[in-house]
Each structure stands twice: as C-alpha cells, then as structure tokens.
C-alpha cells in the first residue's frame, strides 16, 4: 500500500512540477509576457478611461522588472507620464517571508512627467488614477500594526528625467531637468531614521522653483529627525533657480564643482561631522525688490531683544576649500558702480575661502582660517585674511591675524576676556581687550572706493600720495581702555605718537579720552604737499613739532598744545564746550614768531603775543565773550612796538573792541563795534591816528609827521560783503609845513561773480570792476 501511495504522490508531484515549469516558461516567454502586458494595459485603460501604452514589460519570479515605453495620458489627452526605460530589482522572497521590501538596483531613464492643478474642485490631473483604483471603505476597521516595514535600498541610476509641476491653487511651480543621478545606499533604517549613503553624483541638472502666493506656516511636527552620512557627494553643472513673488526675491545658483564628505549629520542629537567640503568655479546671484515701508515695519518688529544662548551642537569640519566662486546681490534694480561700493549692488568674483580644524562643542569654538579673498566690482579687493580663533564662554583669542586689502596690510593679534559671552554682548563695557597691531600699512586712496567725493578733496588727495604705517597696542577693560602705544608714520619724516586712556569706548554718547602725550613731527617738504606757499604768500618753517595734552568728551575738550617751529613757538591752554551751546576759555602765547620769514616780508621781525579769551552762547548771535590781548613786541623795520593792548567785550553777539597805543613816535586809538550773526558780520571801525612820526616808524626816509581819521563799515561774510570807508582830517607835516591830504572815500563790494571798487576824492574818481576773476579789473 505504501508503494501505491508513493506512486500516486510521485505522479501528483510530477504533474505539479510540469505545471510550475510550464508557468515559468509561460511567464519568461515573449508570448507570455505579451499576454500579461496586454491584459495589464487593458485593465488599467478600462479602469481609467485613458490611453495606456507599454512597449515592453518583463517580470521574473525573482523580482526583476523591465519596463520600456510606458505612456500614460491624463483625461485631457495630454501626457501625464512617459518612461522610456525602467529596470528595477525587487527581491520577492524577503517580501514573502516578512523580511521587508528591498530595491537592490534601479535604473530609470527618459522620463517625462507633467503634473498640474488649475482649481481646487477638479484637483490634480492624476486624480482620476486615485479615483479608479482606490475604493472608499465606510466600514469600521480595527487598528492595524503601525510598526515600520523594513526597507532595503541599493543603487540608483537616474538619467534624462524631466518633471513639470504647476499648482495654480497653492501658487507653486517647479520644473526638474535631471541629467544624471547615481546613488548608492548603504543603510536605510526608517524606524530609527538612519540613512547611510555611499557615493552620490548629480550632474547636468537644472531645477526651477517659483512661489506666487504666500505659503501657510508649516505646523510643528513630532517626527524624529534623521541621521545621515555620506561617503562622497559630488555635484557638477547643477543649476537651481528660485523665485518668491511675495518676498520679491529671485535667486540663481550654478554649482559647477561641489564635493562633500559627511561622516555624520545626526540632526536628532545636533551632531555634525564633515571631513571635507569644497566648492569651485560656481556662482550665486540674489535679486530683491524691497519696499522701504516694509523694511521699516520689519525693523520695528525685530527690535525685540533676546538673550544669547550657546547653541547645543557638536560640529567638526576638517577642511573647507572654496575657490573661484562668484556672488552677486542686487536690491531694487541697483546698478554697479566701477569706482564706488554700493551696498545695494554687490558683485564679488574669485571668492576664495580656505579653512581647517573648525570645531564647536560645549561652548567652545575654534577655527583656522587660512585664506579669505575676493574682488568686488567697485574695485575693492581683499587679497588675504587669515587668523586662528579660539573662543569659549570666558575669552576669545585671535592670533596670527594677517590682512591684506589692496595696499593695506595689518598683522597682529587680539584677545577678549569676559565673565560670560551673553553678559558681554549685553554689556560690552564689562569685557577686557588686549590688542597688538605689530604692522599697519594704510593706503588712504582705498577710501575713494567708499566715498568717491573724497577725490575732490585736495588734502585727502595729498595724504593718499604716501602710505600710513605704524603700530598700536592697547589693553584693559573696554570701559577703561589704556592705549600704551599709538604710532603712525607718513612718509619718512612725519610721525604722530600718543598714549592715553579711552573711557566708555563702547558708548559713543559717554565717550571720554585722556591723552597726555601726543607728539607730532613734520618737515617742511611734507607740509608743502598740503599747502601752496605762493598762493598763500607765506613761507613754511623748516621743522614743525607739536606736543599736546588732550582730555575731554565728544562735546568738550581740554587742550594744552605747544607748537615748536624753526620760526618761533605758539602755546595754547584752553578748554571748549561745543554741545548744544558754545563755551570756551583759554589763552594763547606766541613767542618770538618770525613774521618776516613766514610772511616773506623783511620789514617785519619777531612777534611776541599773549591772548586771553572766554565766552559762551548758543550761537554767534547770542555769544557773550571777553578778549584781552597784549602784543608784547612787534618789530617793523627798525621800530619796535611794545605792550600794545587790545580789549573787547561782546554781549549777545554785539560789542566793542578797543585798543590804544602811545609812545614818543606814535599816538593812535582804535574802536571797533561788531555785530555777529551766523550768516554775516557787521563791523564799524574807527581809527584815530593822533600823531605819527613816519621817519621814526621807518615808513619814510624824510622827517614827516602825519595824522588822520579812518572810518569803515563792513557787512557780509568772506564770500559776499560790502565795504564803505572814509579817510578824513588827513594832514602831513614836513619841514615845519602842513599839507592837507583831503578826504578819500573807498567803496567796495564783493559777490561770487562780481567785484567792484570805487575811489573818490577831490582829485580822483576811479571805478574798477571784475565780473569773473577778482584779480582782473576793468575801469
């Protein structure tokens, strides 16, 4: 009986084997595949009511799928999806045994897809597929197992894929033209959100994304954050265009050569580790349209102060290498300027950034910046910026600082110490600074790129002829910062040195300074680069030295200044307040100033003078002032004037200035009434020369004595004024005989385009006028 049962089972197994073999042959044969394909196409076409085409479909029991020439149209007869070639390997056995779903290999090329939505009622053009294959189920269901299905991914090769997306309801448009994408997945863990990517390469790809409407805020999600690692990511010839109409922003990025090695990017634990990242020969452009009213509103809303908190991240970056990149930024269609930096139109080329050993963890940061360089369209060029930085919650150190900016160079180091970084940001005056600039070289002409109008300033132009070199050292709290060394050199013979203290350096409104030792040395040849001796009619002393003691604030100063030259000395001891009102009090002493040398007049000799002045007022029209001056000695030819007094008093900008002098050869009195105003000055001068021995005064070679009265009225300012003067009671005595000179009237007016002078007396009537150059008259 067992033999009979065995024979029956053998026959049954033989029949089953033959049936399975026939089924396999049927499925693997072209005839069987065509039947399966035609049945599947017919089924989908009947369900959707649209045309479906498949050029070739090949399916194996092992899970290999080959699909060529898939065409699916939407309800309007337009192409929804076209796929030229799809080959995918999906192992069947793991799915049957519950081992999960896997895609070992996927090759997909020649894809065209068009997805759009014109209104919310009809929906997307693929909605008919959902309606055809998804049947609403109104019966109650029991909760299903929501545990993640194991997913295994292998390699992906995508090429020549073009997708168009247009959602008129949401105001979103997107287009993707993918040249090629190769991707190797090493780990895919959906349950723990862990993804490991081997090699990935994206090339010859263009993506456009446009937002035409304001998008709703995305609600917060409690989904776990992923952990990603990438062995080698490369992007080449990738062009991304982004436009946000509501924000008025257009951004374009052309990435020609990008590489990334990312061992860890654990976003859940805020841990990021980058071995290397490089970007070369790429360009980025941003254009914005900004409404000034929106900017003001945003600035007002962003004024809320927030406390500083160290970010909870662990970051390591081994190497950064950016080279030959371009960055552009334009606001409201602003244009580039070849000689002026425009913050609304910036175009940077040859942007280079090379850095190493970047790290941040547990409130500690470090950076080794090897090189930062770029060129801007205005002409600005940063050739080199490098430094080593270390920072934590108590200090920040910058060492090996090296800056090369055109012809400007700076080398040195700085350090900041503080109780806590958050406190320092809120109260910077609590921090301590140590600064050492060992090498400083400044090219003043660089300022022309920021302010082109400075090119018209002859003094700035002269200063730019030579570099400024020097060194600076400072240390202490920012509330009391000691400048131990400040030295600047201009050329070979001009220098300024100083040391002192700055108080409240972080608060300009309360800034104070105290510099007891300021020294300036300058040679004549250097000063002549700023002034013209011939046009001024003066001769500059050969050597000039100035020492000063300055202390004060931005609105008040106490100054003790000593000017020593080869042609005499001038000392100033004064204080001034120039806040809301004017206030000053000081004295000037001039010691043996060689006026003859300076004014190029051999008849003048040394001047010794003392001046004491004080006053106060909100402006010139309200000025109360007092002036006391004494000319201790002033030589003219061989005659010396000694102890000449000059006194003046002003009340509300109006007052008298008086002087009188009498010796054996000269007896004269001066009285001047002045009215000061911010726009103009009115003055009435009365000079009474009671007697003067012209021979003793070295004015004539003969024994001539004279007397006269001079009255003059002045009204105006340096650019436009009128002058009326009259000389009366003029008399000269020679050889015991008197000669009456007669009255002389002089009238003059000066305007920006006209100068005129009238002279009249009993023998002369002369009119001189010039319409252009005051030195050229027509009569």
Describe this structure in words.
This protein has 779 residues and is mainly beta. The protein is built from eleven helices and 40 strands. It has a six-stranded mixed barrel. Strand 11 (257-266) and strand 12 (271-280) form a beta hairpin. Helix 1 packs across helix 2 (30-48). It is elongated. Residues 17-26 and 774-779 have low confidence and may be disordered.
Task: Give structural attributes.
779 residues, mainly beta, six-stranded mixed beta barrel, 11 helices, 12% helix
List the helices and strands and how they pair.
Elements: H1 2-28, H2 30-48, E1 52-53, E2 56-59, E3 64-73, E4 79-89, H3 93-96, E5 101-117, H4 127-133, E6 151-167, E7 172-189, E8 194-211, E9 227-244, E10 249-255, E11 257-266, E12 271-280, E13 283-288, H5 292-301, E14 314-331, E15 345-361, E16 364-376, E17 381-391, E18 395-405, E19 408-417, H6 421-426, E20 432-442, H7 447-450, H8 458-463, E21 468-477, E22 480-490, E23 494-503, E24 512-523, H9 524-527, H10 533-536, E25 543-553, E26 556-565, E27 568-578, E28 582-594, H11 595-599, E29 604-617, E30 624-636, E31 639-651, E32 654-662, E33 666-676, E34 681-693, E35 704-716, E36 721-734, E37 737-740, E38 744-751, E39 754-760, E40 765-770
Helix pairs in contact: 1-2
């Amino acid at each position: 009986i067992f033999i009979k049962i065995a024979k029956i089972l053998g026959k049954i197994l033989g029949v089953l084997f033959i049936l399975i073999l026939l089924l396999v042959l049927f499925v693997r044969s072209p005839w069987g595949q065509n039947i399966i394909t035609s049945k599947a196409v017919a089924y989908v076409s009947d369900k959707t009511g649209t045309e479906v085409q498949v050029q070739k479909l090949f399916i194996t029991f092992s899970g290999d799928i080959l699909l060529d020439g898939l065409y699916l149209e939407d309800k309007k007869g337009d192409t929804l999806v076209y796929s030229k070639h799809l080959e995918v390997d999906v192992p069947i056995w793991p799915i049957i045994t519950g081992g999960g779903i896997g895609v070992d290999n996927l090759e997909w090329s020649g894809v065209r897809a068009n997805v759009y939505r014109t209104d919310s009622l009809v929906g997307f053009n693929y909605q008919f597929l959902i309606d055809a294959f998804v049947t609403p189920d109104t019966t109650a269901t029991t909760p299903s197992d929501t545990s993640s299905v194991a997913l295994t991914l292998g390699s992906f090769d995508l090429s020549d894929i073009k997708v168009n997306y247009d959602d008129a309801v949401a105001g979103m448009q997107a287009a993707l033209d993918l040249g090629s994408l190769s991707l190797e997945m090493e780990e895919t863990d959906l349950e723990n959100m862990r993804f490991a990517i081997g090699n990935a390469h994206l090339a010859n790809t263009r993506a456009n994304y446009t937002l035409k409407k304001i998008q709703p805020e995305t609600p917060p999600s409690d989904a776990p954050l992923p952990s990603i690692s990438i062995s080698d990511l490369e992007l080449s010839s990738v062009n991304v265009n982004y436009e946000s109409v509501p924000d008025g922003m257009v951004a374009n990025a052309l990435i020609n050569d990008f590489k990334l090695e990312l061992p860890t990017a654990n976003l859940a634990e805020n841990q990021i580790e980058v071995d290397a990242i490089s970007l070369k020969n790429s360009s980025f452009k941003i254009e914005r349209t900004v409404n000034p009213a929106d900017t003001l509103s945003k600035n007002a809303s962003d004024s809320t102060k927030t406390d500083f908190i160290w970010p909870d991240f662990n970051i390591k970056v081994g190497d950064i290498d950016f080279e030959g990149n371009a960055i552009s930024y334009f606001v409201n269609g602003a244009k580039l300027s070849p000689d002026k930096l425009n913050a609304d139109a910036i175009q940077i080329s040859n942007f280079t950034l090379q850095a190493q050993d970047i790290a941040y963890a547990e409130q500690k940061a470090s950076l080794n910046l090897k090189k930062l360089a770029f060129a801007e369209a205005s002409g600005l060029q940063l050739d080199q910026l490098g430094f080593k930085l270390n920072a934590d919650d108590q200090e920040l150190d910058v060492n090996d600082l090296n800056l090369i900016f055109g012809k400007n160079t700076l080398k040195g180091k700085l350090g900041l110490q503080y109780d806590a970084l958050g406190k320092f940001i809120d109260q910077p005056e609590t921090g301590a600074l140590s600064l050492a600039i060992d090498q400083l070289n400044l090219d003043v002409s660089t300022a022309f790129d920021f302010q082109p109008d400075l090119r018209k300033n002859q003094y700035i132009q002269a200063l730019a002829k030579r570099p400024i070199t020097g060194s600076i050292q400072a240390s202490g709290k920012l509330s009391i910062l000691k400048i131990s060394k400040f030295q600047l050199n201009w050329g070979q013979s001009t220098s300024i040195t100083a040391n002192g203290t700055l108080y409240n350096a972080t608060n300009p409104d309360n800034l104070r300074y105290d510099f007891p030792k300021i020294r300036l040395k300058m040679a004549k040849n250097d000063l002549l680069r700023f002034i013209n001796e011939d046009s001024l009619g003066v001769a500059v002393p050969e050597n000039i030295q100035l020492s000063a003691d300055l202390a004060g604030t931005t609105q008040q100063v106490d100054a003790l200044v000593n000017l020593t030259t080869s042609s005499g000395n001038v000392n100033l001891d004064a204080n001034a307040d120039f806040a809301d009102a004017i206030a000053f009090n000081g004295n000037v002493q001039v010691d043996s100033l060689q006026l003859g040398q300076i004014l190029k007049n051999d008849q003048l000799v040394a001047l010794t003078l003392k001046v004491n002045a004080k006053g106060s007022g909100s402006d010139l029209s309200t000025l109360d002032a007092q002036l006391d001056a004494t000319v201790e000695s002033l030589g003219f030819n061989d005659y010396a004037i000694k102890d000449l007094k000059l006194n003046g008093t002003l009340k509300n900008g109006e007052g008298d200035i008086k002087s009188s002098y009498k010796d054996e050869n000269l007896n004269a009195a001066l009285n001047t009434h002045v009215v000061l105003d911010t726009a103009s000055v009115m003055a009435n001068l009365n000079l009474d020369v009671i007697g003067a021995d012209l021979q003793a005064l070295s004015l004539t070679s003969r024994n001539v004595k004279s007397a006269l009265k001079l009255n003059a009225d002045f009204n105006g300012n340096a650019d436009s004024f009128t002058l009326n003067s009259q000389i009366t009671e003029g008399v000269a005595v020679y050889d015991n005989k008197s000669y009456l000179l007669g009255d002389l009237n002089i009238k003059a007016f000066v305007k920006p385009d006209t100068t005129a002078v009238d002279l009249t007396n009993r023998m002369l009537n002369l009119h001189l006028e010039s319409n252009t150059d005051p030195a050229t008259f027509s009569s």
